[in-house]
Amino acid sequence: MAAAGGKSVLFVCLGNICRSPIAEAVFRKMATDSGAVDKWVIDSGATSDWNIGSTPDERSLTCLRKHGIHTDHRARQVTKEDFATFEYILCMDESNLRDLKKKANGVNNCKAKIELLGSYDPEKQLHIQDPYYGNEQDFEKVYEQCVRCCKVFLERNS
């Protein structure tokens, strides 16, 4: 799964329609703007199978468009192969982290470093709260957290 430069990242949340597609789109834009996108394989996925094949939540898409970012992502569930092919799996909260680590235990050749995306937040907001039951401001907060975290993650891995 590694790109020409050998880097790969999978962003993960519960349903892959709010937080992780925002993080994926933000990171892809940052990598593109910095000229590093060809060195990366970038994707996102879900711990659940609830939304497989769905587009991101309309509020996620509206938030991204507001910031000039486009995505054509379709929700998918994290697979066992992801643990063997992605260098980094970055998730949004403790529940995601617990589910991913449990799934990783069943993978013989797990190479992925599984972490909270928020561990890269310079403002030390470790968890990126699910905005699904929230409003526009909650999606904007997710976007802002993803921008901060993705910026640091990209800088540390460039």
UniProtKB/TrEMBL annotation:
What the entry lists under Gene3D superfamilies is as follows: 3.40.50.2300
- Active-site residues (renumbered): C13, R19, D130
Specify the Phosphotyrosine protein phosphatase I domain's residue ranges.
7-156
Its gene is: ACP1
Report one GO cellular component.
cytoplasm
InterPro entries named among the record's database cross-references: LMW_PTPase, Ptyr_pPase, Ptyr_pPase_sf, Tyr_Pase_low_mol_wt_mml, Tyr_phospatase_low_mol_wt
Per its record, the protein catalyses: a phosphate monoester + H2O = an alcohol + phosphate; O-phospho-L-tyrosyl-[protein] + H2O = L-tyrosyl-[protein] + phosphate
**Species the sequence originates in:** Ictalurus punctatus (Channel catfish)
Q: Which GO terms describe its molecular function?
A: acid phosphatase activity; non-membrane spanning protein tyrosine phosphatase activity
Location(s) in or outside the cell: Cytoplasm
- Main location per UniProt? cytoplasm
Q: Which family does it belong to?
A: Belongs to the low molecular weight phosphotyrosine protein phosphatase family.
Q: Does the keyword Cytoplasm apply?
A: yes
| Family annotation (SUPFAM superfamilies) | Phosphotyrosine protein phosphatases I
Q: Pfam families of this UniProt entry?
A: LMWPc
Name of the molecule in the record: Low molecular weight phosphotyrosine protein phosphatase
**EC number(s) from the headed UniProt entry:** 3.1.3.2, 3.1.3.48
Function, as annotated, reads: Acts on tyrosine phosphorylated proteins, low-MW aryl phosphates and natural and synthetic acyl phosphates.
The entry's keywords: Cytoplasm, Hydrolase, Protein phosphatase
